[in-house]
User: Which sequence fits this backbone?
């Protein structure tokens, strides 16, 4: 299997404190009338704290499925996903539905391609929602925090508008602010720039970069845009549900474009 | 407000129309239950309280004339608490302005000031008449159309006229209260009796028990004892009747009727909950993405569940705010109305805690129960499903998700085949209608619920009309037991041939029959009197009586000591069968009579028996003579009967006959059908409420259909359909649903009519009666359902037509 070729399991790495996410032989099979379909064929990988990890691959490669395995939005067929949260190792797929939701709300910020803001709530309220649901902040504190986050994404003047009144790029910034609401360790983004024009997309991408650089967040982002590869600290390539070695040309281009990232490999590691 | 609760709050007002529909439909159910249960409590309290407050006599004895001595003797009996004598007789009366005669029961009271039994409640004017003055019962005031101060003209048996002045109006909650065939009453003093040609003596005793006023057995024993004593003193007792102090004789009837209304109220609640289930299902379907988002950012099942639970409870609370105050008012208004009709007084406005609690419970439970399934399944949905829109796509039947082609269902195949078959026979269903039809059947669960509500409403509606006709039919059947087109009564017997000869000279008279009446006591095997019966003696081959026989045969010429008796006898002798002997006491003689047949009548009107005229005339030395004649005329309409009554009356008076009264056949029955009309009106109101819930359900369904079909409407627009075409499709769909529900309603109305008529007839007549059908209800409902379904589709249709292509494309 391809994955075995590129992945080498390292006991040390599993135990290392800086490791945030561990995926071990994750298999996802969809059952349907047309027959079974393996969307993930045994993925083993790990993500360290402070990484800006890109997951790239063609449409249908299983990228979204992989993200869903990490966030626990969907259940895996076999394997194991562990996330180190506040000193504990959480085995995501052993949590009950409700515990999982609570854990996700507090630990992971999720950003979707189609923003997923609630249309009837104002922007601040949308950002307050995760705080409300997790019960982590008092009502008053949560509003202040939401406004702060809005300020960070430079949308404070639209605080009391519903999402329909702002542009797509602005909506995605609100979604990012919402993802930060509970101050999570990890942000998971599924093609967050997929439905934006290239200028706006670049803005959003920079915002993510800043989150990694300035706030030390860990981000796992899915994209099918190979040109972004050089800008991640590390990239996983998915094809047909398996991790593969990066197509050499692309890797070369990426590496050439940003020599500081040359040393990052599939084996994980930190920025120097 | 926390964003969670703000979302719930905004959801409530997101679609005002939808919220309004749900709130109204819960409110209608809560309102009707509130009104009926409130009225039930108020009436069952106040009816008997008001009855008892008027000091009803426990025993009433109709007898031959007597004076103060007998009364004093009765008062001295230690079982008797109080006793009073009165004189009751009837007379033809009219106001000086009108020439329509009304038969009035006139009650002469010894002393209005000291009277302690069967009290009258003053309504207007004075409460005690003087000499040559009269008080009128409210009903008499209505019938005679007079006011305090007016003069009344009385026709004495000899034909002479006398006048009395109306000095007051009273309410008599006791006399004739359970006899809807009883004439209205007027009250005079004994001193006025001579003016009306009456002896200044009593002919009725009213007595109350010293104790055990609510003990039937005790009262019956005392009554039997009284009767014996009176008979031993040489008087003749015509009839004894007993009643309890604290039980209104109509209490059980009114309760039974309120029970029927309550059952319909429960049905409305039931139907409105199916409407709510429909709406909440659609709402949660639309909200799947919201639920997904909330779960994605950390919302737990329970949190989502509670949010939607609060939302549906809010529907309940809103409808309670609307329905509880209205229901309280309605309950009192209904009670006041029934009180007025039955002639009792209420103890004043009040809130009935029980009704209040029931309303709140229903208002909260209905949305809870009907919304629980959609809310539970909605809050359990996984993030993945909710966000990927799998469900939404699956719901949009026809478009297979993930590129898979959806298999054609059996139903769709059936539709296609039917359309094809029709087309082969040259029947082309217009395109838009075809689309409507397909749409109609697309959401089958929703269609079934909508059809269910509309059908129930329709079935009840139709049933109410059938029941009305059935009741009317039975009332006139009952009338035919003792009434003809004109009933002519004299103050002394006349030869049949004599009356017949004169009557047939009057134009329009077809037939004349001489009838006799007598009263008898039914004795039990120990010789105790158990009941009075009225015996009617028409000619054995009378064309006037068309009995509804339950067992045995009708009377025949040559029957001697044989009778046909009404069903009510079975309450005393449940095993009585034709051929059995019944011990009767007639005019002081005890005799065994053979029962030849049992027939239907109205239970509460007492027991009726028929014996051939020929036999009674022979044994009472009245051969070929009678006091009472039944006349058949060429036409049977009310106006004609009244006219013939007047004509016969004046004709016989002119020829020197002592006419007591000439009464048009249906006159006595008016009061009866009037009170039944009230009942029918209530039933109709309930049916309309049911229908309105049904059409709200249809409006809801149509709106949901339109909303879910936004994209399809956009496509229709894009291929050139104009506003009217789109509206027509939506309205046609509504009408198709309406028509289907009509057909189903017609079928379902059969068992409903049967059920409703048997419940009502048991309550009112104390016997089940045969169902009669009328096309009226079917046609009115057809018109109504078409109008309702058109109206219910108009708003959704307008909304559909207003959608622009841009909005349609933005819809997701
Ligand atoms: N719920 C599902 N049922 C069946 N097949 C699915 C489901 N979700 C995804 N798939 C299939 O799994 C594969 C991977 O999907 P996905 O992870 O969404 O791909 P990507 O995000 O890389 O485009 C695709 O071929 C897709 O058709
Ligand atoms: Mg994807």
Assistant:
């Amino acid at each position: 299997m391809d994955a075995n070729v590129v992945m080498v399991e390292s006991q040390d790495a599993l135990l290392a404190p800086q490791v945030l996410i561990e995926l071990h032989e994750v298999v996802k099979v969809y059952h349907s009338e047309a027959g079974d379909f393996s969307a993930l064929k045994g993925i083993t990988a790990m993500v360290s704290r402070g990484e800006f990890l890109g997951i790239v691959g063609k449409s249908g490669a299983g990228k979204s499925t992989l993200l869903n395995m990490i966030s626990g939005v969907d259940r895996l067929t076999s394997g194991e996903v562990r996330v180190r949260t506040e000193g504990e190792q959480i085995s995501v797929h052993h949590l009950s539905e409700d515990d999982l939701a609570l854990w996700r709300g507090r630990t992971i910020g999720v950003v979707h391609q189609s923003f997923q803001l609630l249309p009837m709530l104002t922007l601040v309220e949308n950002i307050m929602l995760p705080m409300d649901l997790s019960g982590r902040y008092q009502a008053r504190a949560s509003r202040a925090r939401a406004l702060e986050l809005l300020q960070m994404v430079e949308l404070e003047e639209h605080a009391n508008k519903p999402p329909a009144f702002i542009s797509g790029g602005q909506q995605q910034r609100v979604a990012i602010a919402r993802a930060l609401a509970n101050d999570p360790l990890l942000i998971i983004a599924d093609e967050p720039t997929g439905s934006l024009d290239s200028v706006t997309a670049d803005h959003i991408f920079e915002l993510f970069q800043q989150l990694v650089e300035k706030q030390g967040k860990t981000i796992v982002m899915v994209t099918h845009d190979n040109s972004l590869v050089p800008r991640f600290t590390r990239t996983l390539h998915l094809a047909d549900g398996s991790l593969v070695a990066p197509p050499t040309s692309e890797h070369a281009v990426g590496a050439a474009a940003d020599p500081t990232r040359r040393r990052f490999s599939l084996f994980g590691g930190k920025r120097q | 407000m926390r964003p969670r609760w703000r979302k719930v709050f905004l959801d409530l007002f997101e679609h005002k129309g939808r919220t309004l529909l749900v709130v109204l439909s819960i409110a209608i159910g809560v309102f009707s239950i509130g009104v009926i249960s409130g009225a039930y409590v108020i009436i069952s309290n106040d009816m008997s309280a008001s009855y008892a407050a008027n000091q009803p006599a426990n025993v009433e004895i109709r007898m031959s004339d007597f004076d103060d001595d007998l009364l004093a003797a009765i008062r001295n009996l230690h079982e008797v608490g109080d006793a009073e004598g009165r004189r009751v007789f009837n007379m033809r009366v009219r106001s000086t302005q009108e020439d329509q005669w009304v038969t009035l029961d006139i009650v002469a009271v010894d002393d209005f000031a000291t009277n302690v039994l069967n009290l009258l409640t003053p309504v207007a004017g004075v409460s005690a008449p003087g000499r040559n003055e009269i008080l009128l019962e409210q009903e008499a005031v209505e019938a005679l159309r007079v006011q305090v101060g007016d003069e009344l003209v009385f026709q004495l048996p000899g034909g002479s006229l006398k006048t009395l002045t109306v000095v007051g109006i009273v309410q008599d909650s006791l006399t004739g209260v359970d006899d809807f065939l009883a004439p209205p009453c007027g009250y005079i003093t004994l001193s006025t009796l001579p003016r009306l040609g009456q002896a200044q003596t009593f002919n009725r005793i009213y007595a109350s028990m010293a104790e055990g006023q609510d003990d039937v057995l005790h009262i019956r024993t005392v009554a039997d004892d009284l009767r014996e004593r009176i008979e031993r003193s040489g008087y003749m007792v015509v009839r004894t009747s007993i009643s309890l102090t604290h039980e209104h004789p109509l209490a059980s009837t009114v309760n039974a009727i309120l029970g029927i209304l309550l059952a319909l109220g429960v049905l409305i609640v039931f139907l409105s909950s199916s409407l709510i289930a429909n709406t909440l299902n659609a709402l949660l379907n639309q909200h799947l993405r919201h639920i997904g988002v909330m779960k994605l950012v950390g919302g737990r099942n329970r949190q989502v569940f509670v949010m939607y639970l609060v939302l549906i409870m809010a529907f309940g609370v809103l409808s309670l705010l609307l329905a509880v105050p209205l229901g309280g008012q309605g309950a009192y208004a209904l009670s006041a109305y029934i009180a007025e009709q039955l002639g009792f007084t209420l103890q004043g406005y009040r809130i009935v805690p029980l009704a209040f609690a029931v309303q709140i419970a229903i208002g909260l439970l209905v949305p809870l129960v009907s919304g629980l399934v959609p809310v539970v399944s909605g809050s359990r949905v996984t993030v993945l499903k909710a966000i990927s829109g799998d469900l939404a796509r699956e719901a949009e039947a026809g478009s297979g998700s993930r590129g898979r082609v959806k298999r054609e269902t059996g139903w769709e195949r059936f539709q296609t085949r039917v359309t094809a078959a029709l087309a082969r026979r040259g029947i082309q269903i217009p395109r838009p209608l075809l689309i409507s039809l397909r749409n109609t059947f697309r959401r089958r669960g929703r269609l079934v619920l909508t059809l269910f509500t509309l059908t129930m409403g329709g079935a009840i509606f139709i049933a109410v009309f059938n029941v009305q006709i059935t009741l009317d039919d039975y009332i006139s059947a009952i009338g035919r037991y003792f009434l003809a087109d004109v009933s002519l009564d004299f103050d002394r017997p006349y030869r049949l041939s004599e009356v017949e000869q004169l009557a047939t000279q009057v134009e329009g008279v077809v037939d004349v029959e001489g009838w006799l009446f007598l009263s008898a006591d039914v004795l039990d095997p120990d010789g105790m009197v158990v009941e009075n019966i009225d015996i009617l003696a028409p000619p054995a081959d009378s064309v006037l009586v068309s009995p509804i026989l339950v067992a045995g045969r009708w009377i025949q010429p040559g029957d001697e000591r044989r009778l046909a008796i009404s069903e009510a006898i079975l309450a005393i002798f449940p095993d009585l069968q034709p051929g059995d002997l019944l011990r009767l006491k007639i005019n002081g003689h005890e005799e065994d009579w053979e029962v030849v047949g049992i027939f239907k009548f109205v239970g509460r009107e007492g027991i009726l028996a028929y014996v051939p005229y020929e036999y009674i005339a022979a044994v009472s030395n009245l051969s070929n003579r009678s006091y009472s004649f039944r006349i058949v005329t060429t036409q049977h309409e009310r106006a004609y009967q009244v006219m013939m009554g007047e004509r016969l009356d004046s004709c016989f008076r002119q020829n020197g006959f002592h006419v007591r009264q000439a009464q048009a056949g249906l006159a006595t029955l008016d009061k009866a059908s009037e009170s039944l009309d009230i009942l029918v009106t209530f039933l109709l109101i309930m049916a309309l409420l049911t229908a309105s819930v049904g059409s709200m359900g249809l409006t809801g369904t149509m709106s949901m259909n339109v909303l879910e079909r936004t994209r399809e409407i956009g496509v229709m627009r894009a291929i050139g359909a104009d506003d009217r075409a789109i509206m027509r499709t939506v309205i046609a769909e509504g009408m198709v649903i309406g028509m289907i529900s009509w057909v189903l309603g017609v079928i379902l109305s059969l068992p409903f009519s049967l059920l409703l008529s048997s419940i009502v007839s048991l309550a009112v007549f104390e016997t089940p009666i045969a169902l009669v059908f009328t096309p009226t209800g079917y046609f009115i409902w057809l018109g109504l359902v078409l109008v309702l379904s058109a109206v219910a589709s108009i708003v959704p249709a307008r909304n559909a037509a207003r959608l622009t292509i841009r909005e349609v494309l933005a819809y997701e």
Observations:
- Chain A touches chain B at residues 32-34, 68, 73-74, 97-98, 101-102, 104-106, 110, 112, 116-118, 120-121, 125-126, 128-130, 132-134, 139, 178, 181-182 (CB under 8 Å).
